């Protein structure tokens, strides 16, 4: 069997900056992201962007206060074409930003804000109307109150308060998704480094897989190892084995792994704001022909998709090489969504482009240089219980695609073989 093994094609230089080597330039990263945001604002004819979604806020403002605050709606930011972005943050976090990034924030554009913590503070407190009035005042001062104001994911009460102030609020999420779909060289380094960390975790998982270990034990192992290597957040570890493989439940349990179990894992973590989504499949002790066949099929679907990834290609071309839902045991494409699947990866887990038979056939997106996305395939085994799950992350270059998920996945690996 002639196998072409992937090799490192973008640098993963380490988790800290040094004086003797060029690594990530974080100021250049900040400037790229705000420039991309404003570029898409102009394309979408938006006078301003009002952001509540945490990944959008980090992308546009380079602020974050920890994942306990993720998408709780209490933080919001405003971006216009001129000047610095504004952030309304959770209490003392506003003061912290002024200390952390003094060239970007002071008491005029980093202040406390609150819209009620998803309704925990009721509307009778007036926080929705207060925030909307304050935002209108800022927009009026910049001559933007009559412009189209893009909003990404505001709570219903906030959205209604903005309308009550007479602001022309429109969908701003698409502008942010389009801004984030093309990655800079610094972003690609961070995404590659995040994948390099998962490469190491998979080595640890492969060595640890043996009868008696629980799915949840693997989750604990992965969390510990990622934090040791510098991860800032572990969003999820899918850990699935045995009869739980088919259908895919998307959640781990305390099930004991047994001899002959097929097991697959997805590691989703964050390094300096940038995520991974990275599946691998193993079998414990010994493999059956049904398990090997499922893996082979999943790999073939993956390779057929990768072959098509290049600038100018279209996402419908990729979706068409994957089987229809009915061909692998599901009623329709909605029922099977997320199994034969592609998605952008960046400061968010699911960015543009989203690739599947559910959406890509009728609404294809052109693949562009600088995109980074994951491709996922799934093949149930003929034994009715096992399944194979493979995922590769790719950088789209002028010459095609480069894989940045490098832990071996060319053939089914047997852990602790008998």
Q: Average pLDDT across residues? A: 96
Class from helix and strand fractions: alpha+beta
Helical content band: 25-40%
CATH superfamily of the largest domain: Creatinase/methionine aminopeptidase superfamily
The quaternary state of the protein chains shown equals: single chain
Number of helices: 10
Strand content: 15-25%
| Molecular shape | globular
CATH T-level topology of the largest domain: Creatine Amidinohydrolase
**Unreliable stretches, pLDDT < 50, 5 or more residues?**
none
Domain unit count: 2
Write the topology of this structure:
Layout: H1 26-43, E1 48-51, H2 54-61, E2 76-80, E3 86-89, H3 93-100, E4 110-112, H4 127-141, E5 148-151, H5 156-164, E6 168-171, H6 173-180, H7 185-208, H8 215-229, E7 233-241, E8 262-271, E9 274-275, E10 278-284, H9 289-306, H10 315-320, E11 341-344, E12 351-355, E13 372-380, E14 387-397, E15 400-403, E16 413-415
Task: Describe the overall structure.
The chain contains ten helices and 16 strands. It has helices spanning 26-43, 54-61, 93-100, 127-141, 156-164, 173-180, 185-208, 215-229, 289-306, 315-320, and strands spanning 48-51, 76-80, 86-89, 110-112, 148-151, 168-171, 233-241, 262-271, 274-275, 278-284, 341-344, 351-355, 372-380, 387-397, 400-403, 413-415. The protein has 418 residues and is of the alpha+beta class. Helix 1 crosses helix 6 and helix 7 crosses helix 8. Strands 4-3-2-1-5-6 form a six-stranded mixed beta sheet, sandwiched between helices. It folds into two domains: 26-180, Creatine Amidinohydrolase, Chain A, domain 1 (3-Layer(aba) Sandwich); 185-415, Creatine Amidinohydrolase. The two termini are 23 Å apart.
């Amino acid at each position: 069997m002639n196998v072409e093994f992937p090799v490192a094609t973008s640098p993963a230089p380490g988790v800290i900056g040094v004086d003797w080597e060029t690594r990530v330039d974080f100021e250049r990263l900040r400037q790229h992201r705000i420039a991309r945001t404003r570029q898409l604002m102009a394309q979408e004819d938006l006078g301003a962007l009002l952001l509540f979604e945490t990944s959008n806020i980090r992308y546009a403002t380079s602020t974050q206060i920890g994942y306990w605050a993720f998408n709780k709606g209490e933080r919001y930011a405003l971006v216009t074409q001129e000047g610095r972005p504004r952030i309304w943050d959770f209490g003392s976090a506003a003061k912290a930003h002024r200390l952390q990034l003094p060239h970007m924030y002071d008491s005029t554009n980093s202040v406390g804000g609150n819209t009620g913590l998803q309704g925990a503070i009721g509307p009778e407190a007036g926080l929705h109307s207060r925030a909307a009035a304050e935002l209108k005042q800022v927009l009026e001062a910049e001559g933007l109150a009559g412009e189209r104001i893009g909003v990404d994911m505001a709570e219903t009460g906030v959205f209604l308060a903005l309308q009550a102030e007479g602001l022309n609020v429109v969908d701003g999420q698409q502008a942010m998704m389009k801004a984030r779909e093309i990655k800079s060289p610094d972003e690609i380094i961070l995404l590659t480094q995040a994948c390099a960390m998962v490469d190491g975790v998979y080595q640890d998982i492969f060595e640890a897989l043996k009868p008696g270990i629980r799915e949840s034990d693997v989750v604990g192992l992965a969390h510990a190892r990622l934090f040791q290597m510098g991860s800032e957040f572990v969003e999820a570890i899918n850990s699935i084995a045995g009869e739980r493989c088919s259908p895919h439940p998307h959640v781990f349990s305390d099930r004991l792994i047994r001899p002959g179990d097929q097991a697959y894992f997805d590691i989703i973590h964050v390094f300096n704001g940038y995520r991974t989504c990275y599946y691998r499949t193993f079998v414990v002790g010994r493999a059956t022909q049904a398990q090997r066949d499922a893996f082979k099929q999943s790999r073939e679907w993956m390779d057929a998709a990768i072959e098509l990834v290049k600038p100018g290609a279209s996402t419908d071309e990729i979706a068409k090489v994957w089987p229809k839902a009915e061909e692998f045991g599901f009623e329709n494409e909605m029922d099977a969504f997320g199994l034969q699947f592609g998605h952008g990866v960046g400061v968010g887990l699911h960015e543009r482009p989203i690739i599947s038979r559910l959406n890509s056939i009728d609404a294809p997106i052109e693949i562009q240089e600088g995109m980074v996305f994951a491709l996922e395939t799934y093949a149930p085994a003929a034994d009715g219980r096992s399944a194979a799950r493979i995922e590769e992350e790719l950088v789209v270059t002028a010459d095609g695609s480069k894989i940045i998920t490098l832990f071996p996945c060319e053939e089914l690996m047997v852990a602790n073989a008998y």
